[in-house]
Design a protein that fits this description.
Layout: E1 2-7, H1 15-24, E2 31-37, E3 55-59, H2 66-76, E4 81-84, E5 89-91, H3 95-105, E6 109-116, E7 121-122, E8 126-127, E9 130-131, E10 141-144, H4 145-150, H5 164-174, E11 179-189, H6 198-215, H7 218-224, H8 228-245, H9 247-260
Parallel strand pairs: 1-2, 1-4, 2-3, 6-11
Antiparallel strand pairs: 4-10, 5-11, 6-7, 6-10, 8-9
Length: 273
């Protein structure tokens, strides 16, 4: 059996998106769905909804981050294979079957394909023909439970928006676990597009800087664009160059500011996952 684990967004009303997701899974067979939220009764429709698959809703008042919610869902799940998929993602027909066939072929970590609500498709950035760890995301992330447990799950020391997917991907790569793109598993990402949100760009920069410092890896910092030398360069050149770069310049400056602002942050109190 495959367990689909869905962390519920704490601040936005995504009832219609979640309902569309759950109904899209009705005809895909051989699964269970585990919803994890920080409030006891997130949506009233769940009290009466009776899907043809096992559905559970877990309440963890301490689950402030998506990473913690995913860990709680994985701990409660019954399946030997896990798919983590956010509550604003609606699978298309054949989504689960594509994952099922992939799991039978190879014990790897798979990233499903998806389109944003604006219509453009996401594709992973490749390194020497391979999927890089920085592509890991919460839209459709599938793997055998054994691989999830091997790297210790998602980091719970990261608080706030984002970063837990990136940090998880880094540990997967460090452990030598293969990442595969699975375009046959298509879905629609109907929530906000992060690349168009400057506040999220700033938050992403801050989380990237925290991750690089946590792992004490200068190469990681360089790859994420948050090495101190890179930040000094960006902070001195982007304010007057960003007009030439259009929106990309605005995004890069917001990302750099977010990373710069964390330079005096205390070390995270959690232990490395």
């Amino acid at each position: 059996m495959i367990s689909v684990i869905v962390p519920l967004h704490p601040a936005e009303d995504r009832r219609e998106l979640l309902e569309a997701k759950l109904r899209a899974l009705e005809g895909q067979g051989g699964l269970e769905v585990v919803l994890v939220g920080s409030t006891p009764h997130p949506y009233t429709f769940l009290d009466e909804y009776r899907p043809p698959y096992p559905l559970r809703t877990l309440h963890d008042p301490q689950a402030g981050s998506a990473g913690r919610k995913r860990n709680r869902g994985a701990a409660a799940a019954q399946g030997e294979h896990l798919i983590f998929s956010d509550d604003d993602v609606v699978p298309e027909p054949g989504w689960l079957e594509a994952f099922r066939q992939a799991f039978a072929r190879e014990g790897a970590v798979y990233l499903g394909g998806f389109r944003f609500r604006e219509g453009h498709a996401w594709k992973p950035a490749l390194r020497l023909g391979r999927v890089g760890f920085n592509n890991v995301n919460g839209v459709a992330l599938g793997m055998p439970r054994a691989l999830f447990e091997r790297v210790g799950g998602f980091a719970e020391w990261l608080e706030g928006y984002g970063g837990e997917d990136l940090e998880f991907g880094y540990r997967l790569a460090r452990a030598g676990i293969p990442l595969r793109y699975l375009p046959q598993a298509q879905a629609k990402h109907l929530g906000p597009t992060p690349a168009r949100d400057l506040l999220k760009a700033r938050q992403a920069g801050a989380q990237a800087a925290r991750i690089a410092r946590y792992h004490k890896d200068p190469k990681l910092a360089l790859e994420l664009g948050v090495h101190p030398a890179q930040l000094v360069l960006k902070m001195t050149t982007l304010p007057w160059m960003k007009g030439l770069l259009g929106y990309t310049g605005d995004y890069e400056l917001a990302y750099a500011w977010g990373a710069w602002e964390t330079r005096y942050d205390p070390p995270p109190s959690g232990q490395q996952a």
